[in-house]
Amino acid sequence: MSSAKVIVILFFYTCTVRECVQHDFEPVKTALLQTWAEKLYFELWNCGEYITNRKSLQSKYNKEAKLEGRNGQVLAANISSVIKSMMDKKHQALKRILDIVEEVAVSAHDKAAPGNEYKVRNAKPKTATVNTSLPLDYLTVNSHFYNTPVNVSYSSVHVPTYVYDRASDVIKAIKWSEHLDETFKKNYEKDPRLSWQYFGSTTGFMRQYPAMEWPNKPVDLYDCRMRPWYVEAAASPKDILILVDNSGSMMGQSKIIARHVINTLLDTLSVNDFVNVLVFSNVTNEVVPCFEGLLVQATLANIRELKLGVEHIAEPNNISDFSEALTRAFETLEKYRERNMGAMCNQAIMLVTDGVPENFYELFKSHNWKNGTMGMPVRVFTYLIGREVPEIRDMKWMACANHGYFVHLSTVEEVREQVVHYLPVMARPLVLHQSHHPVIWTPLYADVIDPKMTDYEWEIKECLQQRTDTISYKKTKDQFFYPINEAKRKHSRMKQELNQNLNINRQKKYNLITSLAMPAFDKKTEMTKVAHLLGVVGTDVPESDLREAMSPHLLGVNNYAFIVTNNGFIVTHPDLRPVFEDILKPNYNSIDLTEVELVDSDNNPREFDQSILTLRDYIINQTTGDQEITVKYHYDDMRRATTADRHYYYSVVEGTPFTLVVALQEKHFGYRVKIPDRFQSLNTTRASLLDYFKDDEWRIHPDWLYCRYDYDEDNRTSFKSREEELRHFLNRISQKNNSWNKWPPPRFYSESYNSNGTKKSEEKFDCKCDKDLMLNLIYDANLTKGIFTEAKNDTEKKKNPAAVLMSLLPRTEFEKRFGVTLAFVATHSGLTRWMDYDNYEDKTKIPSDSDDSEKNKKHFIDENVYSIEEVWYRRAVEYNMVNDESYVYSVPFENENIKSSLVTASQAVFVTSKENKKKAAAAVVGYQFRHSALQELFTNITRQCYSETGCTPEIHTCLATDRDCYILDNNGYIIASENIIETGQFFGNVKGSIMNMLVEEKIYKKIIIYDYQGVCFKPDKEDDANSSSFLYTPIHHVKQLIGWLIGRLLWLAAHSNFQWMVSQAQAIFEDIPDYQEDEENNYSSDTSSNLKYEGEKALKYVMIHRTRPKTCDRVVNLFTLASKIPEKVERKSCARPYELRKIMNTNLILLVVNECKDKLTKTVKFDTLPQEVPYNESLSCHKAANSLPRCRPKTACIRTHPDEHEIYDKMCGKGTTIAPTLLVFFFSLFNFI
C-alpha cells in the first residue's frame, strides 16, 4: 500500500473519531427510552384490544368450554386403523380387478386378434389412427379426480408413443381387457373415494378408469411399464449391475444406443432396488467414481447421478477385458448377498456390448453355478448393439445359460420397447408359483409426470427468463445496466432460486400419490411352460386423502402426524417440500425421516443425533411405541425458527410398509377444547344453524372433511365453493331425523361384503360428515358471530380511558390514525372470519400506473384460509407460552412496495381450566393495519422528549444524526426504522456488528437449520466459466437449425426416443417462440441498429448463466429472542453502542443504536438466506458413503422356481425387427406433410 493511501485512510479515521468525541456519545436517557417503549405499548395494545374484541371472545370460551387431554398413543392407533381400513378397501378392489383380468385372459387365449374394424377408446386426443378410435364423449369435470374431465361410464386406453397400437398382441389384449369396465364401475360404487383404477399390460398399453383425455404437453413420455407401481409389482426387489462396453468399436451409433439402453434400464428401477453402472474396456471403472464397489439405492437422486456419469463416459478406446468386468460384477453381487445388503432378493447383470469374444463358460461356472445351474443366484441379460454383428450365438448363450434374456438392438427407436422385456423374465418365478400375488405399496410420487421433466422445465424457465431480460434490454438499454436495476434482477433471481419452501399441502400443480398394485398372471395351461406375466393392476391413494385421514383438527395447532416407509422415506409430512419454482425437485420422493425432524444439537450436517436414529430404527422396523426428542424447526419460508420438546408416538399401518407417527408438543399443546354438552346433540340449535353463517365474510379450511357427497356426479347442486357446500349440509342437518356418524370419519369405514360383492348390513349414506369437526365448527361460529361489531357496544371496553377515547373518535379519524384495514379471527375448527375497514385514503383519487401493485394485491382471505396452519396463527399460539397477553407483529419480508405494506398483529385465545390451570388454544384474533401508520407512530414517539429534563430532541432523541432507532421482532426482522426501506429486512444485514453483540449478550439466540431438501444450481457445462460462452454466433444458429430439422424428423419416428438425454434443446425451440420475431416490429430500424452495435459489447452481460438443478444440502442461521429477556436491558459499559427496551405485551423490542460507536466496532456480516453446504464430494456420494439402514419390504422374495429351466431352453431372447416402428414413421410422415 502506498504512503499516500495510508495518509488518506488515517485522515478519514481521525475525522470519524474526532466527530464521535465531539458528540461525547450522548446516550438516550434511561427514563426517556422507557417512556418511548411504554407509549408504543399503550397505542398498539389498546388498538388491538379495541379492534379484535379479544377479551369478549376469551370470556365466551371460558364460560362453557372444557378441556380434554390428547392421548398420543390412542391418536396414533386410531389414525393408523383408519388408514388401514382405507387401504383394505383399495386392496379388495384390486383383487376383484385381478380376478377378472386372469379369468378373461384365459378365455380370450384362443381368439383371434380383432381386425381394423375394431375401434378403441384412445385416451390420446386426435391421434394419427383416429379412424380406429372411438371418441371420448361426455367428459365432465369431476372434483374427485383432480377436476379432470372424465366419463365414469367406461375406461380409456393409453398406448406409449413408440408402441404400435395395432400390433396383434397389443390389440388383442386391449380387446379382452374391455371386460374390466364393469368391475371398475362396481368398485367405484362400493368405494366412492376410490381413485384411478388401471391395468398395465406387458404389451405396453394401460387401461384406466374413468376415461379421460391424456395430457400430451409438453410431450407424452408415459409408459406404464416404467412407473413405480408396475416395476415394483412385476418382480421382487433386485440388485442390478450394468456393464457397458467402451472399447474402440463402440463408436458413433453404437455408443448412442448403449447410453439409451442404460438410461432406460435405470428408469425401470424403484427405491427397493439397488444398482450401479460399470464401464469397461481394458480396465473396469464405475461411471460415478465414488460409487466404487457399491450398489446404491435406486432413488431419483442416485439414478440422476448415474445418468450424469453415463453422459460423461470417455470416448471409446482400447480392447475390452470382459473377464475382469464380469468377475468384478459377480464379486460385488456376492458381497451384497453374503452380507444381507442391498435388495436381498433378485440379482442380475446387464451386459451392454457390440459383441463378445467367447461365451465365458468357465467364468460362469466358477461364479454363478457353484450350486448347479438350478440354484444360480445371478441372472444375466445381454444387449447386443449394432446392425452388422458377425455372431450372436455367444451372447445369446450367456443369457440363456444364466436364466436371463437376450436382445439384439439395431436402432435407437426400438430400445425402450425391447429393454423392458427383462421385467417379465424376472417375474417368471412369481408366475410359476401362481398362488401368490404380492401386493405392493409405492413411495410417494407424482401422478403422470416423468422425472426427466425437472431438467426440461427448468430449461424452459431459463429460456423465458432470458427472453424477458433481452426484451427488457431492448426497451431500456440505457438504464438496463444501472446498478439499481442490476441489483433488482439479481435479487429477483435469488428469490426465485431460493423459493423452495412450498409445503406439500400448499402446492397444487402436481397430484402426489402412493399406489398399491398386484401382478396378474397368465393361468392358461399349455404343454410348454410359458410363465407369462399379463401385467399389473393398480389404484392410487392421493396424498391428500392420507392427510385428511389424520384428522388434523384433533391433533391441533403445532402438532401433526406423518407417514414413513420401510426405507425411512416420508410419504406425507408438513415439512415435505417437493416443489421449487413449480418444478419437482430432483429427489422429491426420497426425503428421509432424519431430514425433516431436526434434533436440537450442535452436530455438523448429516451427523444425525443418536436419538433420531433410534426413533427411525423403531419406525422402519414397524414397532409400536413412543419417544421424546428436543427438536428445532423452521417456518415462514425458512425465515424463522424455534425449538420444542416433541413426543413421538408411532403405530404400524398393518399390511403395508407404512408406519404412522404422531408428534405432539404435550407440554404446551397437550389439550384440546371440548365443546359444551348442549352442543353435542344439536337439539337446541338446529333451527339456528344457518344464522351463524348468514354473512359472506367467513371461510372454512379447504382441505378438511366437514361434510361431502360420496359421488361427485350425485351432487344435489353444483357448489361454487366449500362455503356454499357447507351451507347446503347445514340446511340438511337442521332437518329432523337426520343421521350423524361418529369417529372415525365414515368415508374411511371398512365395510364388509358378501361373496357376490353386495354390502352385508350397512345402510348406504349418500353423504359423509365428520360429526366432531362439524360440532366444533358450529360452536365456534356461534361464539364468533358478530364479534367485531360488538366492539363499539362493549361496556367493559368503555371502562378503559383509551378505549373510551377510541370509541369517541369518528370512524374516519380512527382509521386514519391507526390505518386499520381488516380484523380477523380464526378458530381451531378451521373457521376464519374477517371484517374489512374502509380505506382512509381519498376514494375519488384516480389510480395511476404506479398503483398497479395496489390494485392487484390479493385480499387477506385469498391466502389465509388454513386457520391453525397459518404462520400468524402458529406464532401467536407459540408466543402465548412466553407472554399470554402478547400480540405478535410481523411485516412482509423485503417488500418492494413498502408504502403499501401491511402490519399483521395476532394474539391467541386460550381456554383455561379452573381446576389445574391447563389450557388449550381455541382461536387466534388479529388485525392488519398500514405500515405507514406504524411508521408515523414510531417516528412521532421516538423524536419527543416528553418533559424529560435536560433533553434536547436534536441530541437525545432519534432526531440526532448519530443515532438510529429500530423496532425489531422476536426473530430479528425490522418492523420499523427511520429508514423506511429497511422495513422487513433482517437486522443483521443492516447492522451486523450490533446483531453480533445482541447474540453474544444472549438477547437473541442463534438456531442453525439444515435444509436437507435443497436444490442448488450448477453450470450446465462444467467448463462454463463466464456468460460469454453463451454468446451465440451465426455458426451456432446454423447448427441449431440443422439440429431442429433432424430433431423434427426423429420426433416423427418416435416421439420420445431421445429422452435418455438429460435435456432436450429441440423441445425448447419448439415451445418457446423466438423473441426476436415477435418483438422486432415494436422497434424502429434505428433501434435495431443500435442494438446490434451495442450488442457486440453488451449482449454477453445480458445472457444468463445456464444452470442445471441438483440436489444439495443448505444451511441457514436463524435467530429468536431469548425467552427471559428483561423488560429493561441496562447498559453494561460505556463502549456498548446500543440500548434497548422490550415493548410490553408484544413480540417487539425498541433498539437505539449509537451510530458513532457502531462505526468503531468490527464489521460482521449476517446472511439469513440459505447457503449450500460444501462437501468434498457430491451429495449423492456423501450419502452413499454414509447410508442409513433400511428394512426390506415384508412381501415374500420369490426369485427362483424349479420349472424355469423348461422355459429358458426356448424363450430366452431374440433379435428384433423395426417394421412396426417404420410403419409408424411413414404414416406419421404422411400425416405431417
Automatic annotation (TrEMBL):
Principal localisation: membrane
Signal peptide (residue range): 1-18
Membrane topology field: Single-pass type I membrane protein
Stored InterPro entries: Ca_channel_alpha-2/delta, VDCC_a2/dsu, VWA_N, VWF_A, vWFA_dom_sf
Domain of life: Eukaryota
Keyword match Cell cycle: no
GO cellular component: voltage-gated calcium channel complex
Keywords: Calcium, Calcium channel, Calcium transport, Disulfide bond, Glycoprotein, Ion channel, Ion transport, Membrane, Metal-binding, Signal, Transmembrane, Transmembrane helix, Transport, Voltage-gated channel
Compartments, as annotated in UniProt: Membrane
VWFA domain boundaries: 239-423
UniProt xrefs under SUPFAM superfamilies: vWA-like
UniProt keyword Ribosomal protein present: no
Sample GO molecular function, one term: metal ion binding
Name by which UniProt lists this protein: Voltage-dependent calcium channel subunit alpha-2/delta-3 isoform X3
